[in-house]
Amino acid sequence: MRVVYLNPCGQLGGAEFSLLDMLSSVRAAEPSWELFLVLGEDGPLVDKAEAAGVRVIVAPFSRSLARLGDSGNGLFGALWSSFTALAGTLRYAVRLRRTLTQLQPDIVHTNGFKMHVLGAWAHPKNAPVIWHVRDYVSTRPLMSRLLRLHANRCAAVIGNSKSVARDVQSVCGPELETLCIYNAVDLKRYSPGGEKMDLDSLAGLGPAPEGTVRIGLAATMARWKGHAVFLRALARLPGDVPYRAYVIGGAIYQTENSQRTLRELREMAAELGIAERVGFTGFLADTSGAIRALDILVHASTEPEPFGRVIAEGMACGRAVIASAAGGAAELITEGEDALAHQPGDDAALAARIMDLARDPELRARLGRAGRKTAERRFDQSRLAEELVPLYRRLTGHLTPEHQAHLAVTP
Ligand code: GLC
User: Fold this and answer.
1) What is the pLDDT of residues 180-201, one digit of tens each?
2) Mind spelling out the 3-state secondary structure of 257-286?
3) E strands present in 71-206
């Protein structure tokens, strides 16, 4: 079997780490399969995918196509920029079709909105396309239209949570087969034991006194990831709480108007009077050592989070996690048992949850132990291939005798 994956960017955000997990899982389960990855941008993802045994082809997007997005511009803005990006997009689609014709895939698996549409245009007729949707579509005017328009060219859609699967189905209609495959994490790398990063020196701060509670938000800089809510919640903590906070991450995407800058966040921390207590690490390619160095991991997205890898990573590292419980993120935790929760955007509630944990090391330890158990049960990488391989085989008609026998007895 030959599977070609398509991904718009070459950076390392949640969607790309999830893609890498899939590649490693499928590679381990089916060593004889040929896996290719076509990227719309060069970047650190190339080496990581090659190290996972995948052949990578970089076919760069034009600048206008790379910057195109629904964020911030509204439908008209999006349509206008898409109009200006149209010529480049068409040229790209023709080139992609040529690449795919040469590669002769059995399956084309797309990971990211632009590649869903481009893959639908450019895939060879006999190679079914699977869209792996990792964000809500219904709130994006341009993408909703485009996906609905191309749904009949897609064989199946995977959502990274039930909530995302329902959302994409509401846009594309019930005829399109839609399933949910939760992400996984590398449970060896994201584990309670192992090296802890020195977050203070990484952020250019002096060493913190003994007994300091370390609180972190690890996220891309997308506006809806809730950096402002995090900072406002910290500013609400009583003065006697011995904490230090860390913003872990950097601006990695090219999509226009979609991200906060570190400068903006530093200014916000200064205005809130907490500048000396907040450190900024910048982008980290591997966050496991940073998450392990925290006592409390905060997830603060202001909109329903499609999945929220960082929640699974924090639980896998045995940390006390506070999640913004809406969308897919709410499906990952059992509140009070393996994590705490607050409503998206509610900085007062977030501050209260931080206080519960900052004052109670026992509670932190109990949630951490339970979180690790949940991660082992639900987020093991090997599950990805167990779910993907039968899907690929079914869509291509490549069923082995064992699979056929299995299907025959499964209701
Ligand atoms: C996207 C989603 C995020 C998810 C990631 C991996 O980045 O916004 O919630 O964790 O994809 O599926």
Assistant:
1) 999 999 999 999 999 999 999 9
2) CCECCHHHHHHHHHHCCCHHHEEEEECCCC
3) 107-111, 129-133, 156-159, 178-180
Among residues 182, 181, 157, 183, the alpha carbon closest in space to that of 170 is found at 157
Share of the chain above pLDDT 90, in %: 84
Interatomic CA distance for residues 23 and 409, integer angstroms: 29
The residues that bridge with 66 in the sheet, in sequence order, are none
Q: Give the dihedral sign, CA 115/120/126/128.
A: positive
Question: What is residue 79's predicted lDDT score, i.e. its pLDDT?
Answer: 57
- Indicate the top mutation candidate among 132, 134, 223, 381 to test ligand 1's pocket, ranked by most ligand atoms within 8 A of CB: 134
Give the least confident one: 52-56, 72-76, 242-246: 72-76
185 Cα: distance to centroid of ligand 1 (angstroms): 12
SS3 179: strand
Whether ligand 1 lies within 6 angstroms of the CB of 159 is answered as no
Tokens representing 4? 């070609």
Pocket test for ligand 1, best of 135, 139, 252, 258 (most atoms within 8 A of CB): 135
Number of Cβ within 10 Å of residue 86's Cβ equals: 13
- Which residues does 214 contact at the CB level (< 8 Å), separation at least 6? 199, 208, 243, 244, 245, 246, 293, 294, 295, 296
How many A from CA of 136 to the centre of ligand 1? 10
Q: Would you place residue 411 in the very low, low, confident or very high pLDDT band (cuts 50, 70, 90)?
A: very low
DSSP string computed for 376-410: HHH-BTHHHHHHHHHHHHHHHT---HHHHHHHHH-
Helix (H, G, I), strand (E, B), or coil: what is residue 290? helix
